[in-house]
Amino acid sequence: MAIIRTFEDLDVYKLAREFRKNIYKMVKILPEEEKYNLSSQMRRAALSVTNNIAEGFGCYHYQENIQFCRQSRGSINELIDDLNTCIDENYISRDVYHDIKEEAYRLLKVLNSYIASLQRQKLRNNAITQ
Q1: How many Cα neighbours within 13 Å face the side chain of 63?
Q2: Does 1 map to a domain?
Q3: Number of H helices, E strands in the chain
Q4: What does pTM read for this prediction?
Q5: Which domain holds residue 115?
Q6: In 10 A of CB 86, how many CB atoms?
Q7: Which of 44, 71, 76, 106 is deepest in the core (most CB within 10 A)?
Q8: Residue 47 within any structural domain of the chain
Q9: Do residues 68 and 16 make contact, with C-beta atoms less than 8 angstroms apart?
Q10: What pLDDT digit, counting tens, does each position of 106-130 carry?
């Protein structure tokens, strides 16, 4: 088992970071008229995913960490909706759409597992302190 010293050691963070990079790459191909709307929104949401994982890791209490991870989960779902807009408006190819959407759902699965792990740790910690 790998030693976790910082949030950068977390598998979920590594996966989220790659996802953010792919979103940033994808928004570069959106039309110029979306530069300050959809592109900007997608970049902020993608950054929110990694920022919240990092911020949650820095929290002292499990519940706070879990809440930040839930914020990340919300941003991923927001990005899936944004991807739907991109495909509906023919801004991206079906291949790009499917690849990034698949990556988003894989990230959600890993993030949900991480949240479940934090919840188990919280329960164990509560049992020890009682």
Answers
A1: 3
A2: no
A3: 4, 0
A4: 0.93
A5: 8-129
A6: 23
A7: 76
A8: yes
A9: no
A10: 999 999 999 999 999 888 887 777 6
